[in-house]
Amino acid sequence: MPAYDDLMAFQRTTEALAQVAGRTGWDQETFMPKGAAPQRAEEMAALEEVLHARRTDPRLGDWLEEAHALDAVADANIREIRRNYERNRKVPARLAAELARVTSLAQGHWAAARASEDAAAFRPVLAEVIRLRREEGAALADGADPYDALMQDYEPGGNAAEMAAMFDAMRPRLVALRERALDSEPAPTISGTFPAAAQIALAAEIAGRFGYDFQRGRLDLAVHPFSSGSGIDVRITTRVDEADPFNCLYSTIHEVGHASYEQNVDPVHLLTPIGQGASMGVHESQSRSYENQMGRSEAFCGWLYGRMRDTFGDLGIGSERDFYRAVNAVRSGHIRTEADELHYNLHIMLRFDLERALIHGTLEVDDLEAAWNERFAHDFGVPVDRPSNGFMQDVHWSIGLMGYFPTYSLGNLYAGCLMQAARAAVPGIDDALAAGDPSPATGWMRNNVHQFGALRRPADTIAHATGAAPSAGPLLDYLEAKFGDLYP
């Protein structure tokens, strides 16, 4: 199959260049000197110009016309290359490069404005990002819904109507559980001294226990934790608050879920279109199952309680059960990444509605902060006191990730399905977690999800692993069982 061989040889170079671009972005958020931001923006734009030219090269169309799949792997590679080729041809090279340039600069502006609580300084930057993403969405949609078109970058085949229906189905049970928890006796809180160096050392130990391979990755600090890369170079970041070690530890476990997915894709798929996660929804199923259904389980919390006492001394909590309650405390806080499992999806629903309005033009950036604050007070019963606790808390919009947020909730839904199947298939998961050993659960994920990468479409990836189509039932049943026990 010379056409397929030529197609894949060309694509491997494109994939390698994309990894270089990703690593450049990682450096920008970790070690790049702040003064280098303008030059880095030009570098990112130049890389995007090269990548866009390769992704729209007319030879791709010829090879795709001539190539024929001989097996499932070839079929999946052709499917992904064709999807991206057709998609990228709709976006002008000028627009692709400008988006790369502006979002590279905007990330730094966001971080500085967030640190100084300067919403006025951030709004013009965000407005430019939204303007460009609206233009891109319109080009991709070709008369259809631009938000749906943008979502395809993160959840191929997904659309806003399906996401809205999912949220409508989830909201009543989530709200009922939340109200029950908030009407109950508050959970205890930990207290003590939690030095940054000790937090990072414990986070690294836990990352290793969850299967992260430090020979093919590293752990660093960033303003907003993230995972970057695929194959044999997959890096993670976390952040440290010396008053709240859970922030560091659970952010690390979350990013290890992402990173383990990428590290465990079958090496035969390295630098091919399917040599990475199937979608951000499937990716989030890993980070959320690692963080919550494994990391916040009563079994693992029992082990972590002892390990944190060894590291930090007295925690101000006298039992494993109270520690478990502290880890899973239900509170109406401002910050999405620190939200309990009941509030988390309500945070996503807010962002989903606002970003759809931004892309559709029914909400402008100048009105975003007021719209956020009003919606947050309604949904959470807490006023927003400052921009970093409100619309400026997340990095996503500053770097143009419009259509990304709903995949977090989709990932929770997928995680519910996967963990239900894992527990049915693998005896002793909780016994192992109680000993600080997540490997029975993470091993099931590796064998049933990770190794296949993007071989299958997102929903098919979950169905293949579990034997059933994805649904919200397993997640909601899990939440009702867990928080019904915590808040009887």
From TrEMBL:
Annotated binding of Zn(2+), by residue: 254, 258, 284
Cofactor info, note text: Binds 1 zinc ion per subunit.
Pfam family, one: Peptidase_M32
InterPro entries: Peptidase_M32_Taq
Gene Ontology BP terms: proteolysis
Cofactor requirement: Zn(2+)
GO MF term list: metal ion binding; metallocarboxypeptidase activity
Residues of the active site: 255 (proton donor/acceptor)
Family of the protein in this entry: Belongs to the peptidase M32 family.
Function, as annotated: Broad specificity carboxypetidase that releases amino acids sequentially from the C-terminus, including neutral, aromatic, polar and basic residues.
Protein name: Metal-dependent carboxypeptidase
Taxonomic classification: Bacteria, Pseudomonadati, Pseudomonadota, Alphaproteobacteria, Rhodobacterales
